UniProtKB/TrEMBL annotation:
Pfam families: Glyco_hydro_16 (PF00722). Belongs to the glycosyl hydrolase 16 family. It comes from Agarivorans albus MKT 106. It is an enzyme of class 3 (hydrolase). SUPFAM superfamilies: Concanavalin A-like lectins/glucanases. CDD domains: GH16_laminarinase_like. The keyword Transcription regulation does not apply. Its EC number is 3.2.1.73. Residues 29-326 form the GH16 domain. Keywords: Glycosidase, Hydrolase, Signal. Residues 1-27 form the signal peptide. This is Beta-glucanase. One of its GO terms (molecular function) is licheninase activity. InterPro entries: Beta-glucanase-like (IPR000757), ConA-like_dom_sf (IPR013320), Glycosyl_Hydrlase_16 (IPR050546).
Amino acid sequence: MNVKFCCKVAALPVPLLLLACGSTEQAKQSEEALSQPVGSPAAYWQLVWNDEFDADEIDQRKWNVEEHCWGGGGASQQCYTKRKANIQVSEGSLKLLAKKGSFTGPSLPSGDKRVTKTQAYTSAKLSTKGKVDWRYGRVEVRAKLPQGQGTWPAIWMLPSEEKYGQWPASGEIDIVEAVNLKTPSDAKGVDSSALEDRLYGSLHYGRAVPENLRSGKDYQLPNGINPADGFHTYTVEWEEGEIRWFIDNVHYATQRQDEWYSQYRNNGHLITAEGAAPFDQAFYLGLNLDVGGSWAENANATGVDGDVFPQALEVDFVRVYQCTVERSSGKGCNSVPQEANLVEGFRPPITVAVDTQFAEGPRFSLFDDELDYSLMLNSYDPRNAMRYRLTADPYRGQVIEISKAGKAGNVHLTAPETNMNHWQEGGQLIFDLKLLSHAKGAKLLVKMDSGWPNASDYEVELPALDTWTEVRINVADLAARGNSLVSGKSVDLTKVVNLFVIEPTASMDLQIDKLRFEYPEASLPFNFSQRGLAYYFSDFGGNNSQLIQDPSKQRSRVALTRKSANAAGWAGTSLGEGAGFSQAIQLDELKPTMSLWVYSPAAAIPVRLKITDSKQPDSFAEVEVLTQSQGQWEQLIFDFSQATPSWQSDTRYNKVTLFFNYGVRGAEAGEQVFYWDQLKVGS
């Protein structure tokens, strides 16, 4: 736990029980009472941080107040401001006020005022980010929620560092959220006169958006009480491997680490984080009231009812406790039964060991919203003319921005000495470039080097200003050009230290994004041992395919397809990207066959091969054959003269899809693993 300051603490030998109610008149508790959580079942919680909002303004030692009009991933319609019209502390409570009225402010969460946006509403958001954070503990927030169509209050926690990647791969804990309270309920099976009263506690995790996951439970207060009518205490207890939710000290949900996960990519390879990740690191606390957004606007009456505003999220207190039994894990203060109200979340998709050597193909990403963990962004700047930073683009996320105010200097990405020689075999250096300004006559050089003067450079044609343009440079061409400043010198691709150097020859401002090395996409025949090509798989229905070294050691690199235990009968794997191969599949008209080597877990398993015209999906032909052996490589021959529907010689088939054990669900067969290689025309 990282705390910049702390308050007085005292552990009581007997827990203090408070009955929650909806009254706004409840008096503040005494200092002694604060030392135990509301309704705490144990005497081992120690108060480590709190805000009772007894002053007449925000305590800036504890809170950051955001100012921007971004709208976030939920695409909400408010600008957050610091104005007293939107955020107040009075009469012992914090009030976040959402109001109708046009407002213009920074369009990015960084608050950069150079780029602005106008929204139809204003509201407020504050957090403890950079002030204080915690790893494990009990967080209590006593609050009264707003009502009306388009209101979206949230009390949440986010990681101080994105240790496992971008949101939500590094996790999010939602202590409570609600939308559109007291509007007609859209819950299934309720009376038409019922009003919205559901409260939600949840976790966000998995992979970075858009492969993210959410799980949790909703809760309704007893006796028809609506959360918008009074104050209630919203609580999360968080220990290593387990998170529990309470409202007014009623436990309604528990989620454990076997029902969440974090996966992130490292140079295209999927890594599953270990242990209780992502909920094993320090998180900070946040409060906000949004207007509209993807959830609120698509629920209940839909949209935003401007007539319900102003509305307020009112907070009586925020208290954070730590379990003193075992501080390192947060364990020892739980009194909830082991199997009480468990949340069914998601378990990580199985990953296999693939080519994990640094800078391996088919795609080696240097920068895509963040730098590869092995790289460092540096500059050669003898005259203090270079400036570089990561900055937010409203449509792309983080990009690299570079400014040069003279002739000397460059920006480069440095790595441990790296063998890039294999990229000469068709590999390309690719990046998106946006030119913001440049001096007359300025040129732009891209370089690779293995220690000066062993460098090669390539002049990039300057695009139009303020337009993103993709730049592609053949690695072989770049290496062959050598050093334009030192005759006879060039990069040694077996010992590269600066993988990417960008050097304007005069004053220039530019941005870089999606920087990577790529191989050209493979087409038939598919021989996975061949390097210098990109092999793409598109799995569906519960398949998971990757390239690995043949476990039997009989072949070199092969494909592995895992048909999971929850896979559909039609689960399959398409080869190539969505548009299909650039060249049509040319079968022999007299003997229209294709072949595939397969290593099957059993004999008599149906393997179906489908070829399709990607522009006309109804134009396809497929053939099914049975494996003849178990646990050994065999070649399967697919005779398209027997295809269903019939193979047509004049159809431009350019897409291939494989189905293993077609028609059999994973629930029936259990998880099965198939290895395959050398898909080609003929035998």
